[in-house]
Amino acid sequence: MEKKFIGAGLLSGLIAGIVAFIFARLFIEPQVAKAIDYEGGRSEAEEALEAAAHGGHVHGEGGELFTRSIQENVGAGIGTVVFAVCMGAFFAVAFTILWAYVGRRYPATDPRTVAAALGAIGFVALFGVPFFAYPANPPAVGDDDTIGARSGAFLTITLLSVAFAVAAVVLALWLRPRIGGLLSGVAATVGYLVAVTITVALLPEFHEVPGPVTDGAGQIVFPGFPGDVIGDFRVYAIAGQVILWTVLTVVFALILGRLSRPPASAPAADDERIVAGNS
């Protein structure tokens, strides 16, 4: 049964990746294109100012290894699908471990309910909290000198968020027979939120949205990065992740339902052993 769970996770991730890429291609890529256009215009303005100040000339940049069309279609598509398939594999492994305990301890539990809860936890821990701490930005936003620090901080909050989420689930399962399902869930949620809030407060902040380019007289020769592009990019980034996790969880749950369905000639007892007895 574990192999079927892994297969279900991979298939769910593949479908979720395809759907998420279609959404990203339609809504996120136009925002990326606007950011790239801004970056190009800003570079030209800065080079023109430098050339005017030193009496030199403006140097053009070298050609890209891959065209923009290849990047936004093939590159982004492969990256999104591979990421989603990996998430599907991790999802299946986490479900197998969680169901091995829940299915044995509470055999009346519907495995699709466990999958839905795991999807919600995964979305919050792997995307929601890291995004709240360090919101995604389009290209041209961010200082190249701080990319190492920003990447390290983002990786730190992501790993700790997942670790805190695992601890919260363990705490909820431990408390459930003692204080009930509702109170144990509330206690675990509060503990998780306190832990991530303290972590975010201790991590560094980064505010690196490019301001306007000015000349020697202080006159603006090129505007700062448009705030509406950042806002739209972040909204669509959230929507894209909601779609990815929703599709992944729903497809996985549907496959679970199909795995739980008894064969036409098999007695009902066989079905119960398939679903609840894999642990």
TrEMBL record:
InterPro entries: CbtA_put. The chain crosses the membrane at residues 7-28, 74-102, 114-133, 153-175, 182-203, 235-256. Keywords: Membrane, Transmembrane, Transmembrane helix. It holds the Pfam family CbtA. This is Cobalt transporter subunit CbtA.
